[in-house]
Amino acid sequence: MKILVINCGSSSLKFQLIDSDSEAVICKGLCERIGIEGSQIVYTPAGKDKITKVEPMPDHNRAIELVIEALTNAENGVVKLEEIGAVGHRIVHGGEKFTKSVIINDEVIKAIEDVSDLAPLHNPANLIGIRACQKVMPGVPMVAVFDTAFHQTMPQDAYLYGLPYSYYEKYGIRRYGFHGTSHSFVSKRAAEILGKDAKDLKMIVCHLGNGASLSAVDGGKCIDTSMGLTPLEGLIMGTRTGDIDPSVVEFIMKKENSSVADVTNLLNKKSGVFGLSDELSSDFRDLEAGYNDGHAGARRAVDTFVYRVVKYIGSYTAAMGGVDVICFTAGVGENSGFVRKLICDRLGFIGAKIDVEANKVRGEEKTISTADSKVTLLVVPTNEELAIARDTYALCK
Ligand code: AMP
């Protein structure tokens, strides 16, 4: 079956067409600046050069039409419309309602709407993507795959904030966690690589990308993760603060005479390693170069980022009563031997030893711990689109 995977943002739409038998990517691409001037679709059919088309996209319906046109056109199309057997949608927030992927029907759409106040930027965009696909591909089954679902096994101790309990009951204010599709994919794959049953392993998955989160996976189940009600909590990220004293918000508002919206924007878009490096960059390639050149901001940003990751690894080791495997994934985790080494060099307290030669790996599965390391250190590339396609196929086949 050919599965179309859609990841719809407020002004962008990423897509991949995946063959469920071979799990090969037949075509992948991106619609940018939807609803904004200068929109374009950029896509790459497998084995061919990248194609860019500048096209007006007043809304997501037009974007989906252009995706279908790109996939099916006579000149360089890769599929007939009727061959697309199902569509898998990445949905950011499933609240407490969704603990696994589901076939989309009216009830599911209503439930996604109901939790939209928990992800006011993302869920409405995801819903627009669903409706646009329903319009262009009526009758094709669709599946919702939630970023929060994998973390729904967290126990209450891990997901509650120290707020009055009634705020959890009334408004659902609790920790949910994100990147769940990635944490699930990587933890399962790590068990496969090691030839072990996930039930017998205590793992920490470090998803270190532009957005970054850790999860503690005990016996195959997530028992804690670093993101919270929103993806702002936890690690220091590309441009997000991660954990911060909430009083900082009011303090900045008074000092800078700014609004809640201004400070929220600051915490999400101007902070993290970008802010700490004096706006040198949010990209770890630039930060590594700056670090090696002795750029004070780059050093401050990288060292603070690494310290936070190590602190979380320590706390998750305590939460699980030990750790057998630590996995590195996403843009930084998969590609930056530099960052991995800085982290692992501080993990001697759990007996983890990095193999410097093996750690040269980039974007491939590899064990990067030494033979005598007490903890297995692994690089496991994530593949959220494939995970979405697998769930979609499993529910629609
Ligand atoms: P992601 O959000 O998973 O797509 O990760 C994107 C981030 O990965 C970029 O912002 C970079 O910081 C980082 N990245 C990608 N390639 C490399 C590399 N070769 N070395 C260091 N960082 C990288």
Can you characterise this structure?
The chain is α/β, with parallel strands linked by helices. The chain folds into two domains: 2-146, Nucleotidyltransferase, domain 5, CATH 3.30.420; 196-379, ATPase, nucleotide binding domain (Nucleotidyltransferase, domain 5). The protein contains 14 helices and 14 strands. It has helices at 60-72, 106-114, 123-136, 156-159, 165-171, 180-194, 247-256, 260-269, 272-276, 284-292, 296-320, 330-335, 337-344, 384-396; strands spanning 2-8, 13-19, 25-32, 40-45, 51-54, 84-91, 102-103, 142-146, 202-208, 212-218, 221-225, 325-329, 366-367, 376-379. The strands form two sheets. It has an eight-stranded mixed beta sheet, sandwiched between helices. Helix 7 packs across helix 8. The protein starts with a strand and ends with a helix. Bound molecules: adenosine monophosphate (AMP). Adenosine monophosphate is lined by residues 209-211, 238, 282-285, 330-332, 335-336.
Topology readout:
Blueprint: E1 2-8, E2 13-19, E3 25-32, E4 40-45, E5 51-54, H1 60-72, E6 84-91, E7 102-103, H2 106-114, H3 123-136, E8 142-146, H4 156-159, H5 165-171, H6 180-194, E9 202-208, E10 212-218, E11 221-225, H7 247-256, H8 260-269, H9 272-276, H10 284-292, H11 296-320, E12 325-329, H12 330-335, H13 337-344, E13 366-367, E14 376-379, H14 384-396
Parallel strand pairs: 1-6, 6-8, 9-12, 12-14
Antiparallel strand pairs: 1-2, 2-3, 3-4, 4-5, 7-8, 9-10, 10-11, 13-14
This protein binds adenosine monophosphate.
